[in-house]
Design a protein that fits this description.
- About 20% of the residues lie in helices and about 15% in strands.
- By secondary structure, the chain is of the alpha/beta class.
- The chain is elongated.
- It has three domains: about 170 residues, no CATH class; about 240 residues, 3-Layer(aba) Sandwich (Rossmann fold), CATH 3.40.50.1820; about 110 residues, no CATH class.
- A hairpin with a 2-residue loop joins strand 11 and strand 12.
- The chain contains 13 helices and 19 strands.
Length: about 575
């Protein structure tokens, strides 16, 4: 009889790319590819599915002294699974997949077997399942160091090979599958891996694919930035993104982890270089940025002409008033107003100093309001109403230094964004930890710390322009009062001295953007079909600041599917 064998990779061609020669691509499993099993839900991202479609052979040659085996070059390990050919996405998205020779073991702890040059016999339980008309799909991993992974099906009678069909997989480290842009040297930091002069040979770099640039957030060193980029690349691929991916690394951990303001200032300094790096590529371009990386991205677009078609922000650390001026609030009940200033008239606040501009001075630029009008029309804002870093203290008044520090989700992270806005200018009050000495909510005072203005005196002023010359806040550095300011001075005053009077963009829905989406929305069927792995005492099952990276794809895949659709990457 004439039989046809098909060893099919049923993941989208985006997951395992096919070339004109039929060679397939996948990344090495750098985790535990030699310990003989699948290591939990997170390990699934390092496996790809292969349908073992050999029913015609098994049926035709059963009982005829023919055995069936798989041979390879030792680079591929497989687990036998009971997945259906119609739903191989279950490898990444279902908790009901059973595996093992008898298909009785949960996938996340299933054994894997190495496909050796000598070959392994296909187990009787697997053949029995195939014979009965049910599917067997192999979950495959490629061992580190292999440039090619070979899995070859053979039907053997004695010493004779009756039929042989090879399948080749071109493999590499995941870092060889996307382009790397390193901007750290621009901020005086040594680089372990400089910018690649060109895309790596193993990257799919078809001219018709859009470019995707990923920009990480604050307090991420170079090694951690590699992890961010790798996870974003893998998960977008597993969601079917057709793209040319660029991972961007920049110095975002200046000084200590509490020095957010210095990192924010550096985002302005690096922005022109990000713009030139992105503009060097032609074609459709999408930027995906997280946390403080969104400020770097916005600066590059607004002030340095970075040309992109779409922008996707994740848990953005930008003041929302910079995109939607309606978020700006001068109400004294605003939790972003420092408690010590609630009795003072609003027109003497540093955040309102720009409004005292007599006309024609650069003082008018010292505000976050409408800072990024060129960004808004292109922006898909993926925020989280439960973000612990961007959340506002609800205990009455301002948070103290210890409030939220011992949060079960992340020590020191809760209310961090609110604190850094409230502590601008408060360096002397909080021992310099997470604070600045720049204007902000600091008072002008004499040598003994006595305020130059009492609240009663400030309220008695009938002409607010008096505050333009004789400020209530500490005008430090003094350049804040200058009529002419350089862009560098404006940027430094904004990030270190001018407080926001609106929530962080990454915690709220805003107007003026293409679309906003709450990643913490309570829609279990659509957004959390597999439930959630975390349930904290104080934050419950909230979508936290870095969950897009920290939580396995098994739980977060709807968000990556959404990014792929909204980014036009299908």
């Amino acid at each position: 009889m004439k039989a046809v064998l098909s060893l099919l990779l049923l993941v989208s061609a985006l997951v395992v790319r096919g070339t004109e020669e039929g060679v397939l691509r996948f990344w090495w499993n750098r985790g535990d590819a030699e310990d003989g099993q699948i290591n939990g839900i997170a390990d699934r991202e390092n496996f790809f599915p292969m349908l073992l479609d050999i029913r015609q052979f098994v049926t035709a040659w059963s009982g005829g002294g023919v055995s069936f085996r798989l041979r390879g070059n030792g680079a591929v390990n497989v687990a036998w699974t009971a997945m259906s050919r119609s739903d191989v996405w279950a490898l990444y998205r279902s908790d009901e997949v059973l595996a093992g020779e008898s298909f009785a073991t949960p996938l996340d702890s299933a054994p894997v077997v190495q496909i050796t040059p000598a070959g392994i016999d296909i187990p009787s339980g697997v053949l029995s399942r195939i014979r009965s008309g049910e599917d067997v799909v192999l979950a495959c991993e490629v061992c580190p160091g292999a440039r090619a992974g070979i899995v070859q099906f053979e039907a053997v009678a004695g010493k004779d090979v009756l039929f042989r069909f090879p399948m080749g997989c071109h493999a590499s480290d995941v870092t060889d599958m996307y382009h790397w842009i390193n901007l750290r040297h621009l901020s005086g930091q040594a680089e372990a891996v400089p910018t690649m002069p060109r895309p790596p040979s193993n990257a799919d770099w078809s001219d018709d694919l859009p470019h995707v640039f990923f920009v990480h957030g604050a307090n991420v060193d170079e090694a951690a930035s590699r992890v961010w980029c790798e996870k974003m690349f893998k998960r977008l691929y597993l969601s079917g993104a057709k793209m040319r991916f660029h991972g961007v690394s920049w110095r975002s951990q200046v000084a200590s982890s509490s020095d957010y303001h210095l990192n924010a200032s550096n985002s302005f300094e690096v922005a022109s270089h990000l713009a030139s790096s992105v503009n060097a590529f032609s074609g459709r371009k999408v930027v995906i940025a997280h946390s403080l990386g969104t400020m770097l991205t916005a600066n590059a677009i607004q002030f340095f002409g970075m040309q992109v078609d779409k922008v996707i922000f994740l848990n953005s650390a930008i003041p929302s008033e910079a995109i939607d001026a309606g978020q700006f609030s001068v109400e004294t009940t605003n939790p972003l107003v420092h408690d010590a200033w609630r009795e003072y008239p609003t027109n003497c606040w540093t955040a309102l100093y720009h409004a005292l501009d007599p006309g024609g001075t650069d003082r008018a630029k010292l505000t976050w309001r409408n800072r990024y009008p060129l960004v808004a029309p292109k922006l898909f804002n993926m925020y989280s109403s439960g973000d612990e870093v961007l959340s506002l203290y609800d205990g009455g008044g301002n948070p103290g230094w210890s409030d939220g520090v011992w949060s079960s989700a992340a020590i020191g992270a809760r209310y961090a964004w609110q604190k850094q806005e409230l502590w601008k200018g408060r360096g002397a009050w909080y021992a310099g930890i997470g604070t600045t000495r720049w204007s902000g909510w600091g008072f002008k005072a004499n040598f003994f710390g006595v305020r130059s203005w009492s609240a009663e005196d400030a309220r008695a002023v009938t002409n607010p322009e008096a505050f333009a010359v004789n400020t209530v806040f500490d005008p430090h550095p003094s350049s804040i009062t200058n009529a002419v300011l350089t862009e560098a001075e404006i940027n430094a005053h904004l990030t270190q001295g001018v407080p926001a009077l609106s929530r962080a963009l990454g915690s709220v829905s805003v107007a003026n953007v293409a679309e906003s989406f709450d990643m913490d929305a309570e829609d279990d069927d659509q957004q959390r079909p597999n439930g959630w792995p975390n349930n904290y005492d104080d934050l419950g099952t909230a979508w936290l600041h870095s969950d897009i990276k920290d939580v396995p794809y098994f739980y977060t895949f709807p968000k990556f599917d959404l990014i792929t659709v909204k980014g036009g990457l299908k």
